[in-house]
Amino acid sequence: MKIDDLETLIDVADAGSFAAVAKKRNIDPSVVSRAISGLETELDVRLFQRTTRKMTLTETGSEFVERMRNVVSEMHAATHDAKETAKTISGIVRISASSSFAQTILLPSLPDLLTSKPNLRVEVISADDITDLFSANIDLAIRMGPSVNGDLICIKLITTEYGVFASPGWVAGNPDVKSPAEIAKAIGANYALPAFQKSWLFKARDGRVTESPLGAARVISSSAMAVRQAMLMGIGPALVAKHLVEHNVKAGNCVNLFPEYTVTATTFDTAIWLVYPSKRLLPARTRAVIEWLKKITLDKHCHATHHPD
């Protein structure tokens, strides 16, 4: 069974006639007819019902065509990959990522990637807003949230968890502010998003969730790194993703005020996602960066869970 014949079959199924496919390929209709007849003989099934006016797929033909679409697509991808991997991985991969992900996960791990792929170049577009991958000619993007919208390939890298953190100095200076409700009223830094202004939700280990209304923050920013920095400077408690302060907690620069709780302002089901426009015929350099991103986030997640707050 030749891939050319399978491609002809798919084209005929889409066009509904031998003549249309023959015209598109600039070949004689008899060549198309022989390819389809050969497949039917090889399979010992009728793929099309033919009349003087039109051709329609049989039920068996319809099922076969749909399965062959995937087969042909994968064969093209495998052929492309084989050709690409025979070459040195080189060229540039453009990655869009939030400033927090770029600074804490991507950039610290980048030297290892570049050392292993000496002809690879990486452009990091640090942006906290949602960038259109197609118009901006971006190969890969890192996005955070419960899900990703749009016609994109999405890979969940890690589930993100948040906690309420404060500097040791703030904790020492506010010994009477202890409960979740009291801490929520004494918030130091917060995100400049409407969904983060109302309250914090505290989920205990037994699954129970309590809600604590928020006070007015002393500092408001659209940047997760700015919220983190304000908290580290002692301005007051803040809701921060745990992976952003892992090293600070280990170094004693900040404290998880409620390690027995998972905390959120919106939903507990959030993640870091890797997204890209299409999985077909990706260059070897892009596939290499995808595998690297999956590895470094997995390593980060395993490391974070090995060092509890």
Blueprint of the fold:
Layout: H1 3-15, H2 18-25, H3 29-43, E1 48-50, E2 55-57, H4 59-85, E3 91-97, H5 99-116, E4 120-126, E5 140-145, E6 153-160, E7 162-166, H6 168-173, H7 180-185, E8 189-191, E9 199-204, E10 209-213, E11 219-221, H8 224-232, E12 238-241, H9 246-251, E13 255-256, E14 261-264, E15 270-276, H10 284-306
Parallel strand pairs: 3-4, 3-5, 8-11
Antiparallel strand pairs: 1-2, 5-15, 6-15, 7-12, 7-13, 9-10, 9-14
Helix pairs in contact: 1-3, 1-4, 2-3, 5-10
Descriptive key words:
309 residues, disordered C terminus, 5-stranded mixed β-sheet, elongated, 10 helices, 3-stranded antiparallel β-sheet, alpha+beta
Whole-number mean pLDDT: 87
N→C terminal distance:
59 Å
Radius of gyration: 27 Å
Beta fraction of the residues? Answer: 15-25%
Uncertain residue segments? 304-309
Helical percentage:
40-55%
Report the order of strands and helices.
HHHEEHEHEEEEHHEEEEHEHEEEH
SS content category? alpha+beta
**What's the arrangement of strands in the largest beta sheet?**
4-3-5-15-6
Secondary structure tally: strands = 15
The major β-sheet equals: 5 strands, mixed
- The number of distinct helices, counting runs of at least 4 residues, comes to 10
What's the quaternary structure here?
Answer: single chain
Overall morphology: elongated
